Structures are given as structure tokens and as C-alpha cells.
Amino acid sequence: MAEIGQDIAKAKSILELGGLVAIPTETVYGLAANGLNAQAVAKVFEAKQRPSFDPLILHVHSVGSAEQIVEKIPAEAITLAKHFWPGPLTMVLPKKGIVPDLVTSGLGSVAVRVPNHSLTNELLQTIGFPLAAPSANPFGYISPVTAQHVNDQLGDRVDYILDGGECSVGLESTIVSFLEEPKVLRLGGLSLEQIQQVIPSIKVNLHSSSQPTAPGMLESHYAPKKSIELKEAFNSNSTDDFFQIGALVFQHYMEEIPKENQFVLSPKGDINEAAQRLFTGLRDLDNNQNIKRILTEFVPEEGLGRAINDRLKRATA
Ligand code: TXA
Ligand code: MG
């Protein structure tokens, strides 16, 4: 198990030596390494068992520091940054030569984000390089939203876990590409409606396994180890004992299934609260010994509900 604490100086020295530190952000925890050091970045891929064709996000503390790793930032991207950085927005931009190919899986572009968490932002200010950080989970599994989640699965592969409490947003960042006209590649913690207020013409082009230049959005992802299916697809005549079925529901319990086997995302029907609790709910059900399989349902398709439903589609794929 890794040491967990709030020691920024310790995190800094580990990162400077090419080690791995798990960092809190407002979205999910990241598994961070010096993003300009290919050897350090290689450790991230290895720790996560992540295929090298899936590029990483570079985390920086300001637009100024983003300018050191990207060729140019178009006006619309600057506008988005003004509105939403620091925050759950990642922008894909043409990269500069100093960014190692391993970070970008050989693409000519790099994904950049200014996260919004006091500990991590302080860390980013004190180090002289961007942090390459994917979500701190084994590849394909549910993203971590507490230091304990990271420790449970990657504790023996990370040198230190910076503990910033529970993530306030709970969903990965929204990714917008500026390589051509602005286009959303991944729905996430910044809602489409918020982006549309700034760029009304924004396109949405969620990628999948059929589009290898935009990986990481593989169809089956964010998945618990147990079987998970949408309640519509569930055959209630099956021989399964209802006492062994769990449910991840939006606001109301499912009939027939024992309440203690259910995780209600938001009893008051608040989409943001549901987003914040989604990955904890999936983990709880996955770790509950009494449950063999999990049923779930979509939430309203608005605000962060789109991103929640996207994750549920991938979890049930
Ligand atoms: O909220 C987040 O974004 C978290 C925190 C830690 O910042 N990070 C995160 O990283 O979710 P990860 O690696 O799990 O997801 C990054 C996504 C992947 O789907 C990857 O394919 C995409 O970003 N990506 C990275 N670079 C890209 C690029 N140049 N072009 C297109 N997609 C890119
Ligand atoms: Mg991830």
C-alpha cells in the first residue's frame, strides 16, 4: 500500500525523480508523472496496464503554461479557457516538439487541462513541468474519486497518494478538440449546455473503438468486475435470486430488489449529486459480497446526465 498524505514537497520530489504520485482533481484522481520525461510517463502506462495507443492528458496550472506545450491556442479555445479553467475541461491542441510521443501516442496533438483542486494546483505551481495523468484506475475499470479508491487498486504501484478528499465533480473532464472546428470528443464534468453558451455551434463527435485515433473511449469501459446491465434488458424470469441482485438507481429504489442492495445516486433527483456519487456507487456494488449482478437505469439526459448515461452505456456494453 502507498503512503497517503498532503505533503506537497514530498510529491514534488518524487515527481522530479521520475516517480508516480496520485493527485486529486475536482473530476477524478489522476496517476501523475513528469509529462516531459518519457521514462516517467512509461511507468504510468505500466502501472495502469494501459495500452500505449491511448494518449494521456497533460495538466498545467495556467494558459501560460499550456502555451509552452502547444503550438497555438485558437481564439475560441482561449474563450473556453477563460470561462472554464481551472475546471473539468480538456482541450486537444497541436503539440510542441518537447511533448514526448509516448504522451500523445504519436499523435500530433496533445490534450491539456488546468484542473481545479487547491492541492494539485499548488503542486503544479511549484514544479517546472506539466503532469501527465490519466485517471488512477487499472485500465478499463471505474475511475477513483477518493484516495482510498486509488490505494485499493494501485497502492503498490504508486509512490505517494496526495489526499485531497472526495472529488467534487466525480466525472472525468469533458474533452473538446480544436484540431478542426471545435468538437466534443468526450462528455464529462462540464456540461454540453455550458459549452454551448460560449460556442453555440459546438459539434459533438463521441468516439468509439471504431475510431482508433481517438482512443480511451472504447465501448467497454468504466466497467465493474461484476455483470452490469440496464434494467430494461433484465429478464425477470431468469432463475437468479433477487437477493443476489444489486441496483444503481437515480432517485427511486427498484421494486423487488432488497433496498440494502441498492445505491441511490440522488434521493432528491439532483443530477450533479448523481454525477458526484456515480463511481462510488458502482464500486460499492462491485465490492458487495452479497451481490452477484447489478442492474442500472439511465438518468435524465440533461446537464451532467448526458455524461452519466455515457458512462453507464460503456459500463453495460
Ligand atoms: O478528468 C480527467 O480528464 C481525468 C483527470 C485525472 O484529469 N483524466 C482522465 O484521463 O480522465 P484518461 O486518461 O482516463 O482519459 C483521457 C482521455 C482518453 O480518452 C484519451 O484517449 C483522450 O483523453 N486523449 C488524450 N490525448 C488525446 C488526443 N491528443 N486526441 C484525442 N484524445 C485524446
Ligand atoms: Mg480513464
List the helices and strands and how they pair.
Elements: E1 3-5, H1 8-16, E2 21-23, E3 30-34, H2 38-48, E4 57-59, H3 63-66, H4 75-84, E5 89-94, H5 101-104, E6 109-113, H6 118-126, E7 131-132, H7 147-154, E8 160-162, E9 174-177, E10 183-186, H8 192-198, E11 203-204, E12 227-230, E13 245-249, E14 262-264, H9 271-287, E15 293-296, H10 305-316
Parallel strand pairs: 1-8, 2-8, 4-6, 5-9, 10-11, 12-15, 13-14, 13-15
Antiparallel strand pairs: 2-3, 3-7, 4-7, 5-6, 9-10
Helix pairs in contact: 1-6
Magnesium ion binds next to loops.
Write up what this structure looks like.
Helices cover 29% and strands 18% of the residues. The chain is of the alpha/beta class and 317 residues long. The chain folds into two domains: 4-170, DHBP synthase (Alpha-Beta Complex); 227-315, Threonylcarbamoyl-AMP synthase, C-terminal domain (Rossmann fold, 3-Layer(aba) Sandwich), CATH 3.40.50. The chain has an eleven-stranded mixed sheet, sandwiched between helices. Strands 12-15-13-14 form a four-stranded parallel sheet. The model has no long low-confidence stretch (mean pLDDT 94).
